[in-house]
Amino acid sequence: MPLLDPGMDLTLRPMRYPDFYERYRAAIRNTWTVEEVDLASDLADLARLTPAELHLVNRLVAFFATGDSIVANNLVLNLYKHVNAPEARLYLSRQLFEEAVHVQFYLTLLDTYLPDQDERARAFAAIEHIPSIRAKAEFCFRWIDSLGALDELRTAADRRAFLLNLICFAACIEGLFFYGAFAYVYWLRSRGLLNGLASGTNWVFRDESMHMEFAFSVVDTVRAEEPELFDAELTAQVTTMLEEAVEAELAFARDLCGDGLPGMGAGDMRAYLEYVADQRLARLGLPVRYGTANPFAFMELQDVQELSNFFERRVSAYQIGVEGSVSFDEAF
User: Fold this and answer.
1) Which positions are annotated as active-site residues?
2) How many domains is the chain partitioned into structurally?
3) Distance CA 332, CA 326 (A)
4) Residue 202 falls within a domain, yes or no?
5) Which of 106, 145, 191, 263 is deepest in the core (most CB within 10 A)?
6) DSSP-assigned letter for residue 229
7) Where is the signal peptide (predicted)?
8) Are the C-beta atoms of 289 and 274 separated by less than 8 Å?
């Protein structure tokens, strides 16, 4: 029975997709909690940011305020009911938990960074009144709604629609919007600023990389089972989708960066977004679109930095984490 066949298979033995189960087990080994992240150390840095830097940080945390909630909603509304393998649903259940941890982290972040209640409320309502964030949210909602009331994937058209939704959330939202946000965090860290935010982001980054790779492994499985779905039309649709995501994220970059900051401007961010978009297309087995190099050396070093942070944390924090293999080979 193909992975996207309608129904609700409950049989874990014999297991049809053991790779999905191993991804679930790996995610369990990488458990972390918000309480382990020390954001208090960032307060002194916030007090000495320039107005332009503070604007960037405020816009960034406003995006964080609802970003993971949108991903969680799509997981519940569209992904869980259509991926018909219990071992895959185990992973999606774990992903939903991780999205909840991310939501808690960003709630704590906003409570720490924005002590003024009115300012905090505006950040949580950013998708309503900040155009660059609203445009990204509308992009997400359009793809959440793209499956409409589709309860079963009966036809090839149904399955294509599902694939486009899955690819959008993996490649464009978790794999591009979030990676753009991570780049601002690590740019700040490269300047010795907001190390508490960067510490928590390390773990969000790790989770999101695993979410994205799980989704791509679902795409791989469907491609092996139903190769006829992967035609020139789907390639064109995915490429256009990523182009639209790059433009939406670039508008956000212009809002954050204004006339540019030392080592961070809209031009550099465009190059980075194009580079990341090509990475997503290549992972999907599709032709790259831009051919742009990564302009951010601090992102190329992120895997090394995270590995160092992993072993610097207190031993008690790793009774779960250290049992798993530590591999940081995600392409930036």
Assistant:
1) 106
2) 1
3) 17
4) yes
5) 106
6) G
7) none
8) yes
Sign of CA dihedral 295, 202, 322, 89: negative
**Structural domain containing residue 171:** 43-312
In-domain check, residue 28 = no
Q: How far apart are CA 14 and CA 98, in angstroms?
A: 28
Distance from first CA to last CA of the chain, Å, rounded?
A: 35
Specify the CATH number for the domain of residue 116: 1.10.620.20
Please give the chain's pLDDT, 332 residues, in tens. 899 999 999 999 999 999 999 999 999 999 999 999 999 999 999 999 999 999 999 999 999 999 999 999 999 999 999 999 999 999 999 999 999 999 999 999 999 999 999 999 999 999 999 999 999 999 999 999 999 889 999 999 999 999 999 999 999 999 999 999 999 999 999 999 999 999 999 999 999 999 999 999 999 999 999 999 999 999 999 999 999 999 999 999 999 999 999 999 999 999 999 999 999 999 999 999 999 999 999 998 664 444 444 444 443 344 444 344 434 445 55
Q: Is the full-model pTM beyond 0.85? A: yes
